[in-house]
Structure formats: C-alpha cells, structure tokens
Amino acid sequence: MKMQFQVGEIISCEAVPKSKKLLCSQVKIGSQVKQIVSGIRKYYTPEEMVGKKVMVLVNLKLQNLPEFYLRECSYVQKMQRVILH
Q1: Coil, helix or strand at residue 77
Q2: Is the CB of residue 14 less than 8 Å from the CB of residue 74?
Q3: How far apart are CA 75 and CA 5, in angstroms?
C-alpha cells in the first residue's frame, strides 16, 4: 500500500491532562476535520500549534485510545489517533 499524505491546518489544540506528552488537535484537511493525538507536548504548547500546517498520513489504520484519554479530550465523539513524528 502506498502512503497518502495531505496537508492540514490545526484549527484547535489542547493538552491531554493526564499525560505529559500528548496534545489533542483538530486538523482541517480539505473539507474534513480530523482529530489527531500526538506526543509532542514536550516541544510545543497548544497555543503554538493553532494555525500551523502539518503533513498528515491519511491512509494510516486508525486506532482507539485508552478510555481515560477519551474522557480528557473535550472534542471527542469517537476518538481515533494518527501518530505524527
């Protein structure tokens, strides 16, 4: 399978309270908004991330996060993650 990348813009971001590493972001990719959890909290604040353009691997198999993270991210309807490194 070929990797499919698209550029998205972070429209909102918040720290996951029970984690020292995770940020929960809403990323607009075309007409869709995807929720992405990334382990970059050590390097960026949520405020720094809003408005940034990011490269997203859009055909990555989606995975559910543990239940305690689901309750901490205020945007969650059905939480799924994409790993950005």
Answers
A1: coil
A2: yes
A3: 24
Q: What residues contact 10, with CB distance under 8 A and at least 6 apart?
A: 25, 26, 27, 49, 50, 51, 52, 54
Q: How far apart are CA 18 and CA 31, in angstroms?
A: 31
- pLDDT for position 80: 38
**Long-range contact pairs involving 71-75 (C-beta distance under 8 Å, separation at least 24):** 72/16, 72/17, 72/18, 72/19, 72/24, 73/14, 73/16, 73/24, 73/35, 73/37, 74/14, 75/12, 75/14, 75/24, 75/26, 75/35
Q: Place 37 in a pLDDT band, splitting at 50, 70 and 90.
A: confident
**pTM for this entry:** 0.73
* DSSP H helical ranges for the chain: 46-49, 67-72
Strand partners, 14: 24
**Rg of the chain's alpha carbons, rounded to an integer?**
12
- Structure tokens of 51? 């408005």
